[in-house]
Amino acid sequence: MNTIPIHQDPVDQLLEIGLKDLWYPICPSSFIKEKPVSLRRLGRKLALWRDHEGVLHALEDRCPHRGAPLSQGVILGDRLSCPYHGVEVRCDGVTVSVPGSPGCKLEGQRATRSFHVREVAGAVFLYNSAEDVDTPPPLVLPEQLTDDAEYSNFLCYAEWKGDYRYALDNLMDPMHGTFLHKQSHSMAEGDSTAKFSVRQTDTGFFFEKEGQRDVNFDWSEWGDTGMHWVRLAIPYPKSGGPGGNFIIISGYAPIARDRCAVFFWRCRKQPPGWQRDTWHFLYRNRLEARHWAVLEQDRVMLEDMELDANQHENLYQHDLGLVRLRRLLKSTAQEQIDSRAQA
């Protein structure tokens, strides 16, 4: 019996695990405490730990000796000691000690992939470089996550069963709020029909309803600042407390083809003081559960879609935003593949 090999499209293969040379949020900061942690993200198994001063480090979770998980080892400051044979690997990927065979050729080699990490807004960000780099580009985030004098934010983190690209499609589809979330206290208003347009920005583009703003989930903004993010706003009634519209910044990280990590920062523009304190109280005691209920509606819908659902679509005008984003991601993936082939 003859078998026909199935070859995955290299563009789709790259997109499945995440584009290179970008910053990605990979987990909440609270995930990494006193012991090393192992995470599958971006097509790799990663080992993350804090040294004795609390500084975060990340290596590929594979000892250069026999491939054992470094994450099961012992923290020695900026090094991990492999539990299998005691091999010590520094945070830059260099093997500094082989206790069982001192002076062997493995010592001094940079034989393990290392990754640059940062902690901002309650999350760990990792630079997914194609090759080891000594200095990564700066992590540039929307002001809602970095301007503490003007904005307050909460991080909502979840892991969903499904391709992360469906989560992105969902964010670039403002119209689903009118239907899927129509019982929500913040998305019950607005027209059930709309025409959309695309507006270019310096970092990406807006996809927005024409003639309707600050009524429902009326627009999505795609941004690429060395990290991919989506920004949107949900109008809030006065009962939602001071601070104006509720702004959501979203990020993602692929875990596997059928699993992804999703990040939703809930933000409002508020100076420190009684307004911010009031918002924090209202959010924790009244609003957070409602927001999780809306996310649960998204999760249930997306997790019940077939992995190949996007191969059986009939799109229309409301889908211009996700079509534009898909083309952008595919073209970027092709550029990265071509660049590596030339190198």
From TrEMBL:
<keyword id="KW-0223">Dioxygenase</keyword>
<keyword id="KW-0001">2Fe-2S</keyword>
<dbReference type="InterPro" id="IPR044043">
    <property type="entry name" value="VanA_C_cat"/>
</dbReference>
<keyword id="KW-0560">Oxidoreductase</keyword>
<dbReference type="Pfam" id="PF00355">
    <property type="entry name" value="Rieske"/>
</dbReference>
<dbReference type="Pfam" id="PF19112">
    <property type="entry name" value="VanA_C"/>
</dbReference>
<dbReference type="InterPro" id="IPR036922">
    <property type="entry name" value="Rieske_2Fe-2S_sf"/>
</dbReference>
<dbReference type="InterPro" id="IPR050584">
    <property type="entry name" value="Cholesterol_7-desaturase"/>
</dbReference>
<feature type="domain" description="Rieske">
    <location>
        <begin position="23"/>
        <end position="126"/>
    </location>
</feature>
<dbReference type="GO" id="GO:0051213">
    <property type="term" value="F:dioxygenase activity"/>
</dbReference>
<keyword id="KW-0411">Iron-sulfur</keyword>
<keyword id="KW-0408">Iron</keyword>
<keyword id="KW-0479">Metal-binding</keyword>
<dbReference type="InterPro" id="IPR017941">
    <property type="entry name" value="Rieske_2Fe-2S"/>
</dbReference>
<protein>
    <submittedName>
        <fullName>Aromatic ring-hydroxylating dioxygenase subunit alpha</fullName>
        <ecNumber>1.14.13.-</ecNumber>
    </submittedName>
</protein>
